[in-house]
Write a structure and sequence with these properties.
Length: 332
């Protein structure tokens, strides 16, 4: 923290936290106070959904060099800094669109036009600052995707709370019914939203370091997928359901393809990393050769378990994790 305090990035990030927190306290806190019972009823769904997504992000990050403090800060940025700033800026943007376009167009397309541009840029700016602060430890695309995903998840959680308060106030029958209905729908169909978009933004930032030509692809995907999700789905229930399912399917397919690419890149890099002089100072060639794929690592652990016992297998596993982290930090 002392070293961070000497950097401009730290102070910009802190300022963003403070400004975002101020807006949330000013605008969201009173609404939560008015609908406290409804929000309390919806909160377990929001928390469970967030925990499931967090577990999925953890499973997707196969770098074995996770930086948990970066995850926490990214989540906090998304929940406080980005959400608060986006709440303020989106208000100005939607007003400007309303003044520029006719009412039906602004109402229908305003969220798709303003939301992705403002929200992804703000979330991504915080992730970029974190990448500067953690530049010596966040190196691989999978690592950085996870940091972006946690920033998006933080945003997603607070946005879900905001929607719960909004629909609680709108429902003429029951505040609790309105909050629960929108929360359940967002948990069911919106599980693949902000964390995926910001993960792609972070992946674009990662690629700027060593494959700049590919960087625009995930950066554009973060905006386009968000635009695709926010675009109007019509007014007929059947059409809405079909379009929502189509949107979910597209996002999941794109995420799956991106993950397979990141996994391939991680393995390709590991094959390179174990051949470097730096790797030779960490372990003998035979041990390094077990690192590139999960099958090789598990096979090595099984060998040690069979010939030397479970304790040796556990030591081998811990040793492999240490080597993967050290290679990540030391080999570019």
């Amino acid at each position: 923290m002392r070293a961070w305090s000497r950097t401009v990035s730290f102070w910009i990030l802190l300022l963003g936290f403070l400004l975002g927190g101020f807006v949330l306290v000013r605008d969201l806190a009173p609404r939560i106070g008015e609908t406290a019972v409804a929000v309390a009823a919806a909160l377990p769904i929001i928390v469970i959904a967030a925990l499931l997504v967090a577990a999925l992000i953890w499973l997707l990050d196969r770098s074995h060099a996770q930086i948990r403090s970066a995850w926490v800060l990214a989540f906090g940025w998304g929940a406080i800094g980005a959400c608060g700033l986006a709440l303020e800026i989106n208000g100005f943007a939607l007003d400007a669109l309303g003044d520029t376009l006719n009412d039906p167009t602004a109402t229908l397309w305003g969220p798709a036009m303003a939301g992705p541009l403002n929200e992804e840029t703000i979330k991504g700016a915080g992730v970029a600052l974190l990448l500067v602060l953690y530049r010596d430890r966040l190196r691989r695309p999978m690592q950085i995707f996870a940091v972006g995903a946690f920033a998006g998840l933080g945003f997603q959680v607070v946005e879900n709370i905001s929607y719960a308060t909004t629909f609680a106030l709108r429902d003429a029958q029951s505040d609790v019914q309105g909050a629960l209905m929108v929360t359940a729908m967002r948990a069911l169909f919106g599980f693949q939203s902000h964390w995926v978009y910001t993960g792609f933004f972070a992946l674009g930032l990662a690629l700027l370091r060593y494959r700049a030509g590919l960087a625009p692809v995930p950066l554009l995907l973060s905006y386009l997928l968000h635009f695709w999700w926010n675009s109007p789905s019509g007014e007929q229930p059947a059409l809405i359901l079909v379009l929502v399912l189509a949107k979910c399917t597209v996002v999941v397919l794109v995420l799956g393809l991106a993950w397979l690419w990141m996994l391939r890149e991680q393995r390709r890099w590991l094959y390179y990393a174990i051949s470097t002089p730096v790797a030779a100072t960490l372990a003998p060639p035979g041990e390094l050769a077990t690192l590139p794929t999960r099958a090789q690592r598990v096979g090595s652990q099984a060998y040690m378990r069979h010939y030397y016992g479970p304790a040796y297998a556990e030591v081998t596993k811990q040793r492999q994790r240490w080597l993967l982290r050290e290679l990540t930090y030391r080999v570019r």
